[in-house]
Amino acid sequence: MNIGIGIDADADADADAGTDSDIAIVGGGAAAVGLLDALAARQDGTLAGSGTLTVFEPSPQLWRGRPYGPDLDSVLVNAPPAMMSIRNGDFGHYAAWLGERGTDHIDVLLGQPLVPRALYGEYLAHTAEKAIATLGEQGWSVRVVAARVTGIVRRGARLVLRTHDAHEYGATQVALCTGGGASPDLYGLTGNPGFTADPYPLADTLASVPAGDDVAVIGSGLTAVDVAVSLAARGHRGRITLLSRSGVLPRVWQRPVDRRPQHLTVERVSALCEARGKVTLDDLVGLLRTELADAGEDFDALMAELLHTEAISPVQRLRRQIAAVDDPCVGRRVVQETAHTVGPYVWRLLPESDRVWLRRHLRTATSVASPMIPANAATLLRLLEAGQLTVAGGVQAIEPVNGGFRVRDKDGAHTAGTVVNAVNPQPQAISAAAEELVRSLADSGLATLHPSGGLNLADQHLHIVGDLTGGASFITSSIAGLAAQASRTAQALRAP
What we know:
The chain is α/β, with parallel strands linked by helices.
């Protein structure tokens, strides 16, 4: 096995000589780890024999990406172990690696280990290294090039990748695993003292926040929850306000049950599509109804509960959901799991009218599909009951004034000394690091920009794992979603 970390003199010489790779992976975060694992775990033998695989990743956080690098211990993995497996279909893969490492990080309400994200990053790195070793045993040479890919063009039978340092690398097939875009600055606050555009790592962001400052956090999703919980963990004394248009917090994870969906699956959806040539939202509802009927549960009651997100106050909602962590009903659990494992596959099969309806319920869908862990929910409830935390909806403007900020919402105006941007990036948003690459793909005719974001690929030897897929699901990919996409991409890469 040949593993090269970075670009040394020999790698430069190989690049200038036009050395080909059979497979090139652009990006070295969780999506790339899922793809490497899926390639190494193949059962059909079609990847056997010699070959070269090159991973391009300029960041020092190889395999961990932005979310799973070093940070505060209060920044926890935000899902139960079964939903954090980077190996598609193997819900115990991460839990098996975690083993005794998780015993000091049990979420008492969930009954599951929820560890600091930096520790999860070690799992990703371990999985990648093991996959590379397995590929090496199969005759594959794997190298990692610490360079940013800025362009891809086709030259005859090969795709040529150009890096920021003007070197070129050939490949037969290329998988884009570039990660998501940045959080949007909705109020144009970048450059103002006291404003943080990207909160991670929170260890750096919160170190500069005075303990008595009133902090306004833009957003009320999982990133905003991380900010509020980490402020509390640091003993912050000032007021914390989560600002959003909806004022809706994520729901709360329930204890996992030993039951996997049997009807609402990729296999059943694929069979429907083959038989009828299409799949509709009504078809998915029918599969979910069957799933719930098998469990003795009522579909209409579940939908009524999910669609009335804003009917009660955040405090009442948190109390109810914390109390329901042990609820044996499987309905919400099925929706949460399949939103990420089936959702990315089925989204492109749905008629536009169905996609419009789902987008209209984006905030509810995101709240359900990406819940917060009970430990964080309990912290938020404590802060809310103490009056230190407020969730404000109907935000109209945030403006810099006198070295601080004035916030105007439906209830009037108030001030804050610090503003932290915790707005989630839009699905299919293109990261700043990938913008030049995306322009190159469009200019060379290898891809086109999708109207709703991301890329439509025009070359069968190009593949995407992650939210860069044009027209992909309106919910940002989770680890489970990335694992499912990686598995399908690995099958395409293995195809003759």
